[in-house]
Amino acid sequence: MNFELTEERRMLQDTLRRYLRAEYSTEHRNAILSSDAGYAPDIWTGLADLGVIGALFEDAHGGFGGAGFDIAVVFEELGRAGVVEPMLDTMLAGRALALAGRQDLVDALIGGTLQLSFAHYEPGGRYDLDHVRTECTNGALTGRKAIVMHAGSAEHIVTSAQDGGEIGLYLVAAGAPGLDIRDYPLLSGGRAGEVALEATPAAPLGLGFDALQRLIDLAVVAQCAEALGAMETAIALTQDYLMTRKQFGRPIGTFQALGHRMADLLIELEQARSAVINAAGTLGTRDGALTLAASKNLIGRVGRQVAEEAIQMHGGIAMTQEYELAHIAKRIVMADHRFGDTDYHLERFIALSAA
Q1: Closest Cα to residue 252, out of 260, 343, 128, 325?
Q2: Which of 161, 182, 207 is the last residue of a domain?
Q3: What's the whole-model pTM score?
């Protein structure tokens, strides 16, 4: 099997990597993190102008990609650079709108003039997709949504709710009556909000639980790829540090004990890369759900190992805000807690295998 990227995807990867290397320094990210918005509008516009948002959508919806490997390429580079802009949740909301035929909003999103957010998980629901207590009554939603990424800056929120026991997706406009958002910064960067809906008007998108499951599958691939990119950066920073820091007159990276630990990380990184390739390649297939569960479980376990080892081999400098690894390590660890952690996906893998 050929695992090489197509020429178009290599061009996208190279263009995005060079753009982020030039525009997304540690100092720039720290300035973004301290801002009220939690993201940089100029970076968002730049990503749209490069076609990065369009790469996440299929040709039929105005994009030029949208397949598993397109998503993996984009999010691996975003993870490598530690980008905090709300690309993942915007993609989920945009893909929902594309499925619903709201091409006007999709076009605005791809053009970089629209901010969206995606709200599904609720307090007490863990990661179960069918745990939806938000109700739709006569076209109005009542309920609560937890950790909605960049909810405070979104112009529209795509949210799940149930109507007569059937789970569906709905579109809520920012500033709608009864919509209340408690905004806060996240440990791993960016901002999120607790969303309360009280008889809030919403437009049904005509999408049910199957569409929701497909969207979460997309999110798992994106999250795995993002974590992979962050792990690559963490390991590269650690390798550079080990060959720069000296003890007893020579770089500490030449010490056998540290060399063995780094070799273990490189092996695990290749395992993680294989998992992302497998997940991207089987997305939407019959065996896709099983592969996604296995991949997310492995990424979570490897990610924790990489983050912990990188910090330990660096020492105290790894925990300073001014150093790149401090942010990257947080991103790696917190990636495990989005769209199902290692325990959840282990249980899901067992259940799917037994079915």
Answers
A1: 260
A2: 207
A3: 0.94
